[in-house]
Amino acid sequence: MIRLRLYTTLGCYLCEQLEAFLITLAAGEIELERVEISTDDALIERYGVRIPVLADDAGEELDRGFEAERLAAWLAERGWLCEASWSRFQRDAEPDPPAPRVAFMRSGRRYLGG
Fold this sequence. Notes:
The chain is of the alpha+beta class.
Protein backbone atom coordinates (compact mmCIF):
# COMPACT_ATOMS: atom_id res chain seq x y z
CA MET A 1 0.00 0.00 0.00
CA ILE A 2 1.31 3.42 -0.99
CA ARG A 3 0.50 5.99 1.69
CA LEU A 4 0.52 9.62 0.59
CA ARG A 5 -0.68 12.98 1.84
CA LEU A 6 -2.13 15.59 -0.50
CA TYR A 7 -2.14 19.22 0.62
CA THR A 8 -5.13 20.72 -1.12
CA THR A 9 -8.07 23.09 -0.85
CA LEU A 10 -11.68 23.01 -1.94
CA GLY A 11 -12.15 23.46 -5.69
CA CYS A 12 -8.49 22.91 -6.61
CA TYR A 13 -8.73 21.56 -10.16
CA LEU A 14 -4.95 20.99 -10.27
CA CYS A 15 -5.32 18.75 -7.22
CA GLU A 16 -8.01 16.77 -9.04
CA GLN A 17 -5.69 16.43 -12.04
CA LEU A 18 -2.87 15.19 -9.78
CA GLU A 19 -5.20 12.60 -8.24
CA ALA A 20 -6.24 11.36 -11.69
CA PHE A 21 -2.60 11.02 -12.77
CA LEU A 22 -1.76 9.29 -9.50
CA ILE A 23 -4.50 6.69 -9.95
CA THR A 24 -3.31 6.06 -13.51
CA LEU A 25 0.44 5.90 -12.86
CA ALA A 26 0.90 4.34 -9.43
CA ALA A 27 1.94 0.69 -9.24
CA GLY A 28 -0.26 -0.42 -6.41
CA GLU A 29 -3.09 0.58 -4.16
CA ILE A 30 -2.98 4.15 -2.85
CA GLU A 31 -4.09 5.45 0.51
CA LEU A 32 -4.43 9.20 0.05
CA GLU A 33 -4.91 11.51 3.02
CA ARG A 34 -6.24 14.87 1.86
CA VAL A 35 -5.19 17.79 4.06
CA GLU A 36 -7.34 20.90 3.68
CA ILE A 37 -5.01 23.87 4.07
CA SER A 38 -7.62 26.65 4.21
CA THR A 39 -8.47 25.99 7.86
CA ASP A 40 -4.92 26.40 9.18
CA ASP A 41 -2.91 29.62 8.84
CA ALA A 42 0.42 27.77 9.08
CA LEU A 43 -0.58 25.41 6.26
CA ILE A 44 -1.77 28.33 4.15
CA GLU A 45 1.58 30.04 4.70
CA ARG A 46 3.53 26.91 3.80
CA TYR A 47 1.45 25.50 0.92
CA GLY A 48 -0.84 28.32 -0.26
CA VAL A 49 0.95 29.05 -3.52
CA ARG A 50 2.38 25.55 -3.97
CA ILE A 51 -0.68 23.29 -4.00
CA PRO A 52 -1.13 20.63 -4.91
CA VAL A 53 1.69 19.21 -2.83
CA LEU A 54 2.06 15.46 -2.49
CA ALA A 55 4.07 14.03 0.43
CA ASP A 56 5.22 10.50 1.20
CA ASP A 57 5.55 8.91 4.67
CA ALA A 58 9.14 10.18 4.94
CA GLY A 59 7.92 13.77 4.44
CA GLU A 60 9.46 14.13 0.97
CA GLU A 61 7.27 16.53 -1.00
CA LEU A 62 6.43 17.00 -4.64
CA ASP A 63 5.24 20.40 -5.86
CA ARG A 64 3.45 20.65 -9.21
CA GLY A 65 2.57 16.95 -9.27
CA PHE A 66 -0.16 17.85 -11.75
CA GLU A 67 2.63 17.73 -14.34
CA ALA A 68 2.64 14.07 -15.34
CA GLU A 69 6.39 13.92 -16.03
CA ARG A 70 7.24 15.28 -12.56
CA LEU A 71 4.82 12.89 -10.87
CA ALA A 72 6.14 9.90 -12.84
CA ALA A 73 9.74 10.73 -11.90
CA TRP A 74 8.80 11.17 -8.23
CA LEU A 75 6.95 7.84 -8.19
CA ALA A 76 9.81 6.11 -10.02
CA GLU A 77 12.33 7.32 -7.42
CA ARG A 78 10.30 5.44 -4.81
CA GLY A 79 9.65 2.34 -6.92
CA TRP A 80 5.96 3.18 -7.19
CA LEU A 81 5.64 3.90 -10.92
CA CYS A 82 3.78 1.45 -13.10
CA GLU A 83 6.04 1.51 -16.16
CA ALA A 84 3.38 -0.02 -18.44
CA SER A 85 0.84 2.64 -17.45
CA TRP A 86 3.43 5.39 -17.92
CA SER A 87 4.32 4.11 -21.40
CA ARG A 88 0.64 3.93 -22.34
CA PHE A 89 0.05 7.41 -20.92
CA GLN A 90 2.93 8.88 -22.93
CA ARG A 91 1.80 7.15 -26.11
CA ASP A 92 -1.80 8.33 -25.67
CA ALA A 93 -0.70 11.88 -24.84
CA GLU A 94 1.21 12.31 -28.10
CA PRO A 95 -0.73 14.58 -30.40
CA ASP A 96 -2.08 13.08 -33.58
CA PRO A 97 -0.31 14.35 -36.68
CA PRO A 98 -2.32 17.03 -38.42
CA ALA A 99 -4.52 15.85 -41.23
CA PRO A 100 -3.18 16.73 -44.65
CA ARG A 101 -4.79 19.79 -46.13
CA VAL A 102 -6.62 19.24 -49.35
CA ALA A 103 -6.06 21.60 -52.24
CA PHE A 104 -8.71 22.24 -54.87
CA MET A 105 -9.06 24.42 -57.93
CA ARG A 106 -11.84 26.91 -58.52
CA SER A 107 -11.94 29.40 -61.36
CA GLY A 108 -8.27 28.76 -62.12
CA ARG A 109 -7.17 29.44 -58.53
CA ARG A 110 -5.83 26.96 -56.06
CA TYR A 111 -7.40 26.91 -52.58
CA LEU A 112 -6.49 24.95 -49.47
CA GLY A 113 -9.46 23.27 -47.84
CA GLY A 114 -9.77 22.16 -44.26
